[in-house]
Amino acid sequence: MQSNLAYERPRQRMVSEQLLARGVNDERVLDAMLTVPRHLFVDSALASRAYHDCALPIGSGQTISQPYMVARMSQLLELQGHERVLEIGTGCGYQTAVLSRLCRRVYSIERIQPLHDRARKNLRAARHANVMLKCADGRLGWEDYAPYDAIIVTAGGFASDVWLQQLKPGGVLLLPEGEGGDHRLVKRRKQANGYTEEYLDACTFVPLLEGVNHY
Ligand code: SAH
C-alpha cells in the first residue's frame, strides 16, 4: 500500500501536466487516468518511469503507449458508459483497463501470447471484471460479440475491412493509419452507406502485424 501511495502524486501530475494541459477535458477520461495504476502494468524496474511523458517497453519488442495518447484515444471514442468496445492490441492491458472504466465491456485481442498472458494477470490483479481477452490476429476482429459500439486499434497500419463490418451503425473506428512508424490517427464513423472520416494527430505506433506469435 505504501508503495502504491507513492505513485499517487506522479499520477496526479501526469494528469495535470500531460493531459489537461494538452486539451484532454473529458471528466470521465481524466478520472480513469487518475485511477488506473499505470506503474503496475510495466516491469517493476520501469515503475519509477511509468508516469513519464513517453511510451515504455513491455517486452516482445512492444510498448505501452504514452499516457497522453491513451487519454487522447479514449476521449476520441466519446464513451458514455453503456458501450461494448473492441480493442486490437492489448499489450500490457493498460489501455484496456482505462477503457474498462469508461464503458460496459471491453473485448481485447493481442497476437503475442506472452503479452496476452501478462495482460490477463495485470487485469486480474486490478480486478477489471468487465474485460474479455483473447490471443488471436485482431485483423479478423471478434465475430462472436459483434457488433461493437466502438473499435480502437493500438498498433499502426491499415484498417481491416472486417472492423467496419463488426461496428454498429453510428459506431466509431479509431486507428493509427500509415506505414513505417509514420502514422496518423483516423476516426471513421460507420454510416448506413459507408463511413465518414476525420484525420487527426500525427503519431508513431508499433506495427499492426498478421498472425499469432506463441512465444
Ligand atoms: N494498448 C497497449 C499498447 C500495446 S502496443 C498498451 O496499453 O499496452 C500494440 C500491441 O498491438 C502490441 O502488443 C502488438 O503485439 C499488438 N498487435 C499488433 N498487431 C496485432 C494484431 N494483428 N492483432 C492483435 N494485436 C496486435
Automatic annotation (TrEMBL):
Q: Which UniProt keywords apply?
A: Cytoplasm, Methyltransferase, S-adenosyl-L-methionine, Transferase
Q: What is its EC number?
A: 2.1.1.77
Q: What is annotated as the active site?
A: S65
A GO CC annotation recorded here is: cytoplasm
The keyword Methyltransferase belongs to this UniProt entry's keyword annotation: yes
The record's subcellular locations are:
Cytoplasm
Q: Which GO terms describe its molecular function?
A: protein-L-isoaspartate (D-aspartate) O-methyltransferase activity
**Top-level EC class:** transferase
**For this protein, what reaction is catalysed?**
[protein]-L-isoaspartate + S-adenosyl-L-methionine = [protein]-L-isoaspartate alpha-methyl ester + S-adenosyl-L-homocysteine
Set out the biological process GO terms recorded for this chain's protein: methylation; protein repair
Q: What PROSITE patterns would the database entry show?
A: PCMT (PS01279)
* Family annotation (Pfam families): PCMT
Q: What is its main location?
A: cytoplasm
Q: Which SUPFAM superfamilies did the record assign?
A: S-adenosyl-L-methionine-dependent methyltransferases
- Keyword Cell membrane in the entry? The reply is no
**InterPro entries, alphabetized:** PCMT, SAM-dependent_MTases_sf
What is known about what this protein does?
A: Catalyzes the methyl esterification of L-isoaspartyl residues in peptides and proteins that result from spontaneous decomposition of normal L-aspartyl and L-asparaginyl residues. It plays a role in the repair and/or degradation of damaged proteins.
Q: Which PANTHER family match?
A: PROTEIN-L-ISOASPARTATE O-METHYLTRANSFERASE (PTHR11579), PROTEIN-L-ISOASPARTATE(D-ASPARTATE) O-METHYLTRANSFERASE (PTHR11579:SF0)
Similarity comment text for this entry: Belongs to the methyltransferase superfamily. L-isoaspartyl/D-aspartyl protein methyltransferase family.
Name the record gives this protein:
Protein-L-isoaspartate O-methyltransferase
Q: Which gene encodes it?
A: pcm
